[in-house]
Design brief:
Layout (H helix, E strand, L loop, with lengths): L13 H20 L5 H29 L5 H22 L7 H32 L2 H21 L4 H13 L10
Helix pairs in contact: 1-2, 1-4, 1-5, 2-3, 2-5, 3-4, 3-6
Bound molecules: fe (ii) ion (2 copies).
The site of one fe (ii) ion has 6 residues, from helix 2, helix 3 and helix 4.
Length: about 180
């Protein structure tokens, strides 16, 4: 059994510490593709850090950058939509019983596609404006605030299948994701 350590720094420039997590996502996705890894452990670690990362971004970074006019409402809302789509794909992955099935591989691929798109776009449309429009001091403050919330969520264990299901349901109810279809 492998344990995937999720680093929990408490300070840093918000751009740098967010980028560190984006790299961790890429590493964990690679682990999830490899038949040599402990895929259960990699899946659990990715779920925890992905949920903590995204929720904390919405609460502690997007709104604050909007208030400072670094990004517009559009960028923030688009980011939140992509988080919701990613969480939905994560839920599908968490709901796979086996880790050595085609269903699991497909769920990993689908999550990787959405996540790679999101982190690319976030780096270009949210982190670049943060670099250019806000001071170093503000970036340090946002970094500390974002990390505090992220680490608190990690401490609580925010990535269980039950909790991800609740987050996805809430996104449907709030209209961030399309209304659930009748089955
Ligand atoms: Fe991010
Ligand atoms: Fe994000």
């Amino acid at each position: 059994m492998t344990t995937y350590e999720i680093p929990r720094p408490t300070s840093g420039d918000v751009v740098d510490v967010i980028l560190d997590d984006h790299r961790l996502f890429e590493t964990l996705l690679r682990e999830l593709r490899s038949s040599a890894s402990d895929r259960e452990a990699a899946r659990a670690a990715l779920s925890e850090v992905l949920i903590a990362h995204g929720e904390a971004e919405e609460e502690k970074v997007y709104q604050q950058l909007r208030r400072k006019h670094a990004i517009g409402e559009e960028e923030a809302e688009h980011g939140e939509e992509e988080h919701a789509e990613g969480n939905e794909a994560l839920l599908q992955l968490l709901e796979c019983t086996g880790t050595d099935t085609q269903k699991f591989d497909d769920a990993v691929e689908n999550l990787a596609t959405l996540l790679n798109h999101h982190i690319g776009e976030e780096e270009q449309t949210i982190l670049n404006p943060a670099r250019e429009e806000v001071s170093e001091e503000v970036r340090a403050k946002l970094g500390a605030d974002w990390l505090a919330r992220r680490n608190e969520l990690l401490e609580q264990g925010c990535g269980s299948v039950e909790q991800v299901r609740v987050i996805v349901e809430r996104a449907h109810q709030e209209g961030v994701l399309p209304a659930d279809e009748e089955e």
